[in-house]
Amino acid sequence: MYDVETRKRALSLVAQGRSLNSVSKETGISRYAIRAWQTRIEPLPRITGAPIRDTPADPAAYSYLLGLYLGDGCLSEHPRGKGHYLRIACADAWPGLIEACRTAITDVHPASKVYIVQRPGCVNVTSYSRSWPHLFPQHGPGKKHNRRIILAPWQQSIVDEQPWEFIRGLYHSDGCRIINWTTKMVRGERKRYEYPRYFFSQKSDDIRKLFSDTLTQVGVEWSTLARGSDPFNISVARRASVALMDAHVGPKY
């Protein structure tokens, strides 16, 4: 925790035109904390007597987990109404993803136990806590693509600080890396050429925009591919952008 004078000093340095990086180095305060003060983030409301954690214990892990949640996650209320279950569906084909999801939940909310529930062809990585609706305010009735999905200011601040973790979480939920191929005549001989490409498929316009906006933030060029009349797919195919994705995201495993 930082006292009021410390916060004022950090914000005054930013107001002078200093970058968050330089202010963070001078004061020893994380960029995430300074950005949170800039956007006047208020603590999440507490429920009397409930063990609510106001903020994620690990912002980077939270950014990744937020991407997983928006893609393949849900919250469901305990039958007795005392808390919520967070469930992230992960395909059996990607054991590395299952372990990464389990680790992220533990890092975000260390007090909550994480367990695996086997389903046909997939598992639900599951955790129970009264904090989950506070940490994922996008929770609501109905399917995500049928309602507005907007990040709270404090969530956007974390994503801005940890954009690649957010991209990786969304990609791990609804993305794939494939090898495309084409043929070309070279000196009278037809040769085959292969090249990697990233795809992200999501029905929600809002979630696709969150993904594409974050790609733009980190310098990845992307395009929209329509499935019939529905622009459900985002493609990353340019060599330099694929190289960035390979360096920071990579194929699922």
Could you spell the SSE succession in H and E letters? HHHHEEHEEHHHEEHEEH
Q: Between the first and last Cα atoms, what is the distance in angstroms?
A: 39 Å
CATH architecture of the domain at 170-248: Roll
**Range of helix content:** 40-55%
- Rg to the nearest angstrom? 21 Å
How would you describe what is shown here?
- The chain has about 250 residues and is an alpha+beta fold.
- Among the domains are: about 5-40; about 170-250, Roll (Endonuclease I-creI), CATH 3.10.28.10.
- About 40% of the residues lie in helices and about 25% in strands.
- It contains ten helices and eight strands.
- It has helices at about 5-15, 20-25, 30-40, 60-70, 95-110, 130-135, 155-160, 165-175, 205-215, 240-250; strands at about 75, 85-90, 115-120, 120-130, 175-185, 190-200, 225, 230-235.
- A four-stranded antiparallel β-sheet has the order 1-2-4-3. Strands 5-6-8-7 form a four-stranded antiparallel β-sheet.
- A hairpin with a 2-residue loop joins strand 7 and strand 8.
- Helix 3 (about 30-40) runs antiparallel to helix 7, helix 4 crosses helix 5 (about 95-110) and helix 4 crosses helix 7.
- The longest helix is centred in the first third of the chain and has 14 residues, at about 60-70.
- The protein is globular.
- About 30% of the residues are buried.
- The model is unreliable at about 40-50 (pLDDT under 50).
